[in-house]
Amino acid sequence: MTPLPTVASAGLIALAAAAAAADLTVSSSASWPEADDDDQVTPLAGFIESNFSPLLAEVAVRALRSRGQPQASGKVTAIVVVTALGDVTTATRTAAAVDAGARVSPLLFFQSVPNAVAGYLAARWDLTGPVVCVSGTSAGLDVAALLIADGDADEALVVRVDLAVTEGDADRAAAILVTGPATGTTVNA
User: Fold this and answer.
1) N or C: which end of the chain has fewer CB atoms below 10 A?
2) How confident is the model at residue 189 (pLDDT cuts 50, 70, 90)?
């Protein structure tokens, strides 16, 4: 198992624990925040007014880059998005606009689907596997294990995003890239 970064977030620790419980091997990982200069998420073209998609893309790219080797040709990588509440910022802003009788930006509708950014990642990184969005960390790793065990993917990029919903809280995200069991055993489906 690849060691977690020295600043391992609670989300990253939860993902790693769920991966171990699902008998998956973690080949790389990333989290937000991960360094002292992680204070502003880099904007992502086409995604506005919310950190959800840019944050998901940031940790996913960090995990993909830290794998230590380029993706092998023909390797199928699934994307599993884990989010308990989805993009609450977009949902709140859309609801406020509707309540006020204001025009809602079409981009807000597009990005209100939590896995919309997964399509962006798949296209940018040539990830050709299935895309799944679930609400729980254990469910996300169970889905990843099933996709790998069934041969639908060789590996899975599992990304968890939690936007701040209370005063003083901060947006957080974590990603791990997992493969099948290191022991050569199969995952029971």
Assistant:
1) C
2) very low
